[in-house]
């Protein structure tokens, strides 16, 4: 099982992190995800970390990087399902995940993405086409 | 990471299988899932196996059992994301997954569940309350 599945749900992509991440798996995930955003035109990415009961700076950086890549591809990132202990660890590690939104569960995350997308599409309609 | 996360999406529950399953993990998943169906009143369960590139009779039986348990709790099960090679192996193993519906991806699976639920709720309204 060498790659993390990315599930398409309407305009959003859902990634569930369940396994221990290592360098190569992270690279594969970033490749797959960016490819899938550009192919599907997804406007949001949900990263579910509810099965992680620990994070380290590696995972924190990975989430930040994914959010950055998604943003330049015109998709918002929401991290969902964070456990209380993980929140404590992240702040203690000095990783406040700037630019990453969070929500308690997938449903709330999708609602957040929907309202963010609606607001954005009100501001500008075709930001994706300028590249 | 000792349990598989179950994500609630509207009336349905989504389980993504990513890790190698062993006896205890399967038991935990069945406990969690049945508890979550009865608590949330979910009417459908989606099992995503897109990251499995192999199945054995153990996994096949697990899927069948989960479908059976869900059914007695009044929820339909749909297996999504099956790879072609997995379909071949399942049939070669003699596991045709009776009583389990399948769909190519999560979106199609949710559409299938929605139509099945609608049809069922037309037939009988309160089957759940008779126990």
- In DSSP terms (H or I, runs of 4 or more residues), the helix count of chain A works out at 4
Q: Give the uncertain stretches of chain A in residue-range form.
A: 127-131
Tally of discrete structural domains of chain A = 1
Structural class of chain A comes to: alpha/beta
The CATH homologous superfamily of chain A is called STAS domain
**Compute the gyration radius of chain A: what is it?**
14 Å
- Find the CATH topology of chain A: Transcription Regulator spoIIAA
Question: Architecture of chain A in CATH?
Answer: 2-Layer Sandwich
Largest β sheet strand count, sense and barrel closure of chain A: 5 strands, mixed
Strand content of chain A: 15-25%
Report the order of strands and helices of chain A. EEHEHEHEH
Strand order of the largest sheet of chain A: 1-2-3-4-5
In CATH's first tier, which class of chain A applies?
Alpha Beta
Q: Estimate the global geometry of chain A from the Cα principal axes.
A: globular
Distance linking N and C termini of chain A: 35 Å
Task: Count interface residues per chain for the largest interface.
Answer: A-B, 23 and 23 residues
